[in-house]
User: Fold this.
Amino acid sequence: MNDLRQIQQRMNEFVAERDWEQFHSPKNLSMALAVEAGELMEHFQWMTEEDSARLPADKLAEVEFELADILLYLVRIAEQTGIDLLGAVNKKMELNEKKYPAHVVRGSSRKYTEYN
Amino acid sequence: MNDLRQIQQRMNEFVAERDWEQFHSPKNLSMALAVEAGELMEHFQWMTEEDSARLPADKLAEVEFELADILLYLVRIAEQTGIDLLGAVNKKMELNEKKYPAHVVRGSSRKYTEYN
Amino acid sequence: MNDLRQIQQRMNEFVAERDWEQFHSPKNLSMALAVEAGELMEHFQWMTEEDSARLPADKLAEVEFELADILLYLVRIAEQTGIDLLGAVNKKMELNEKKYPAHVVRGSSRKYTEYN
Amino acid sequence: MNDLRQIQQRMNEFVAERDWEQFHSPKNLSMALAVEAGELMEHFQWMTEEDSARLPADKLAEVEFELADILLYLVRIAEQTGIDLLGAVNKKMELNEKKYPAHVVRGSSRKYTEYN
Assistant:
């Protein structure tokens, strides 16, 4: 069993034991994920890009938990919609590899922006 | 090697081949992740919670790609900050299990809201 | 002078007195606004739609400040991009009135979702 | 009547004529606002801060509409929660002026980050 599946199962148990399925509609979970994405961004909003790449240890520990929260909600949404997260990611990476051929998009910020 | 690590390595290669590391500061990636979280939410914003749990096939296919995009940016941020995503999630789940004991928080929406 | 302009000028003075223009690139301000939008949403994420329309007084006071924060960043972005906010809103409302003729879109949730 | 009130009234009529109040719970509107905040950010995510301050005309026109959308949803939330937006902003600006005295916080990025 892959580790995304394992996280998903552990979360299923966690939620079931607390009777929290009732709050976990995909709608609500998508809000919760976006709220966490906002909390992640809050750490970086007034930093330069350079500083965001060399966080002090205390910031890093906070960012670590934000990343975890986002992944946990992601896995909950996958569960509640019946989506296979690993399958979705593999499909998307294949698509991206075709959509952005390295020899075409390489080394140009303008192209990057346009393609995305 | 766990599958989060595998996705991360495949993304590293994808980004390196296109010379896109220059755009991938944690600051920029956190914005990109939040943008994708917004796109995910857009599918649900005018739906009832019930409808969000039974998406038609075409919507579901779109949501699948949004989930993939979020995971891909998450993995990029982990890479650029040196955070071990699987480790972070395990740490956070342990913390949550202690913070919200099942027998205390079970079956109460008020408690759920307060605790979160 | 309209009141959006007045808010904008008061904020200009507030920021100048603190020498904070240096942090207020449109890029950073757009992040700050999205972070505040996340904080606003956090109040509603586990509520039903009905409950979100009848907030207790303490919640309402918090929501009030979130709305203020969003407007303040909006006004800062208008300032830093040279956009006339009132003009922009008037233009957009005219556009919406043409794009969604009342007799066509009235009373249908499906249409609402499709049009938006 | 201030212009925020005027926008609010024009939006009230727009929404009533289309029978769209039914979708406009504060919960849903907060999602819609956050989605628009994401669309605004999307314009800036791969730009440098400097470039975000000198947008080409076509980008600027798009950003203008994003700002308008955010303000329109903000005004709708004010309506649906009974919050006086102009009053809220004035209250918040007074608070900020006390919380961040110019002579204390001036000219320090570290202080800015900490205070915010």
In short: Chain C has a mean pLDDT of 93. Residues 79 and 116 of chain C are 28 Å apart (CA to CA). Chain C touches chain A through 14 residues (CB under 8 Å). The helical segments of chain C are 3-18, 26-42, 49-52, 57-81, 85-99, 102-105, 109-115.
